[in-house]
Amino acid sequence: MLSWMMATDPILKLVDHALGVRYEDLPPHVVEAVKKAIIDTVGAGLAGSSAELGRIVCTMARDDCGDRMPASEAAFVHAIMARCRELDDVHEGSPRVGFGHGGHVNVMVVPAALAVVERLPWPVSGRELITAIAVGGDILVRLRLAAGDAGRLGWEGPTVGPFGVAATVGRLHRLEREMLANAMGAAYAHCAGNVLSTSDGTWDVWLNAGIAARAGIVAVELARRGHRGARAPLLGAAGLYSLYFRGEYHEAALLSELGTDFESGHVSIKPYAACKATHHPIYTALELKRRHGIDPAAIARIVVRTSDYSMRLAGLDEHGAPKVAPRSVNDAQFSIPFTMALALAKDAVMPDTLNGDALTDAAVLGLARTIELGATEAKNALAKREGYVPADVDIHMQDGSVWRGCEPFVKGHPRNPMDFDEVAAKFMRCAALAASPVAAEALAAFCSMVRGVEAMEDVRSLLPHSPPMRAPF
Q: What digits encode the pLDDT tens for the residues 147-165?
């Protein structure tokens, strides 16, 4: 029986939400967002299969488990592959609550869902899959939003990811209420992850997604076997908000409009293979270049005004110095000056342009050194509502002219969205980087299947028979 303490903790409301939502409850834009999330996450995984960390985790898992690895390990590997090139989607802010952002979302939920679906002994319809992913993403984001400013103390979306993954996986396993509640308690025991390596150019930040994806599955498997999880994992004496977020908790951010407004429908698809904090400066610089025919060789200097939060994530190294000459590709992915310079020079920031050769490109490095970064109080105030703030960009030309801009919504944002075809085009570009080549016909067939996945009676046919899913895994 569920204890009184659990009955007073909001975790039960989330459990009931996870189990109670029907496909018919999902607004059309949420259904479309989930379909785009599936294809986008798989594409990111294809690209990540050839990255150094992607190869490491795949080799490690196969050495330990062989080609038939358990769902938890498959999710761990797949999530890291989809994360390690900085291509996965991000929740930027909530119109519902007007502040905060949920961070990375589907890079944990989608790999876990697909890994579990493949191994279930019963058919799962496309509608069931969409609903499970939508609910898990919604819960994950709400949990971080409810921490307010404390959600950015150094944690990120994957820190609370085990809860969202457990909700998705528990629903796919058709758990009853008490069993899923126990899984949520076990999920809390697995919460981890920090953003330290965004400043020092190391790889640990990408592990967080894999840890969360695996943790959510393990939590459900424990509960299915009788494990009793924490009774009050959110508001208990050592619960999530008191222990991880220093006591900051906003109930409305967690629970308002539960079941009617799904935060999983407010997720941005990334057009650039870099930290989301770089995207506003990149997009504004490219728009200025397009509108005014700017020749990068004629630029004298660029001034960027953003928030302290964006500066910490992608402006400064571990010593507090501007990141103008990154030491590695992953270091470059967290550098506003370098990615802006690369975008202006190459018109794209994707793994086929942001590579080892780019790190020594004299034109890119020269342009990066002209970029001056700063934070303003206005941007800091905006960051409390927007998460990743629009950056003011002033491009000063050698002839004395100045072009200024501030694009409010980057391409891929819910208010400047990519349509399914645009996401499919990104998927194909990512697939070209896969460690194992995949035939164009198979890639196109996979895109077609995902486009109409809500009509499928059994989505297990996506796995493992689909070459795009098999290649990176």
A: 988 877 788 889 999 999 9
